[in-house]
Amino acid sequence: MGAAEQLLRDALSLEVTLTEGDAARLLTLVDELARWNELYNLTGIKTQREMITHHLLDSLAVNADLTGMRIADVGTGAGFPGLPLAVANPGRHFTLIDSTAKKIRFVAHAAELLQLTNVTALHVRAEELRPPAPFDTVVARAVAPLPRLLESVAPLCGPRTRVLAMKGRRPEAELAALKAPWRVERERELRVPGLAKARCVIVLMRA
Fold it and tell me: Which pLDDT score, from 0 to 100, does residue 142 have?
């Protein structure tokens, strides 16, 4: 089975329906990441198969948790989960935020290469950003402990914003340390094809 066919099948198991064009774009993203990684060390993941599993599929695993049209990806790194989610959701706009210049340069380059007109790349710290309106969803993949994450993304959030914190194992101590006004709306285990490690998403809102 070819990489594109396997990606389509694995994405479908996550309830994400990609077109063949989407799969081709995502594989182009992986190839370009591998090329840049040799020069700029953007990710510790080296092989195509691992990049597909640990970056593409892991990103798409939270697709069902997105709400609204304006999505912020905080601490996006080399563009994950934001870029794969933008490919899968052309009708939504994604703002990818990171404080590391070389990573945001790659994100902007990749968005242009993949012709993703629904992506904005910002080189800024999330806590310094003052958007004209709150985002509908803020997603962060393994960025910081929950209390610190929520403090940093607070300027991006309104009363209806959902924060998706992508984690490994359920972060018991972090959840116990949550303080008002934040509350857990729901949480679920993520089963990523080919990834044996524990993964979960915690969905939080202001009470």
Answer: 87
Per-residue confidence (pLDDT) for residue 192, from 0 to 100: 97
- Calculate the average pLDDT of the chain: 97
In SS3 terms, 110-159 reads as: HHHHCCCCCEEEEECCHHHCCCCCCEEEEEEECCCCHHHHHHHHHHHEEE
Output the pTM of the full model.
0.97
CATH code assigned at 31: 3.40.50.150
Q: Which residues lie closer than 8 Å to 78 by C-beta, 6 or more apart? A: 33, 36, 42, 43, 55, 103, 106, 107
70-74, strands of its sheet edge to edge: 119-123, 93-98, 70-74, 135-141, 157-167, 200-206, 182-189
The confidence score (pLDDT) of residue 1 equals 77
Low-confidence ranges of the chain (pLDDT < 50): none
Question: Please, which residues bridge with residue 200 across strands?
Answer: 167, 189
Number of folded domains in the chain? 1
CA distances for 194 relative to 55, 88, 102, angstroms: 12, 20, 29
Distance CA 116, CA 119 (A): 6
- DSSP character at residue 64: G
Taking CA atoms, 80 is separated from 67, 106, 133, 186, 206, in Å, by 18, 12, 23, 22, 25
Residue carrying the six token digits 């563009």: 79
* Domain span holding position 59: 3-206
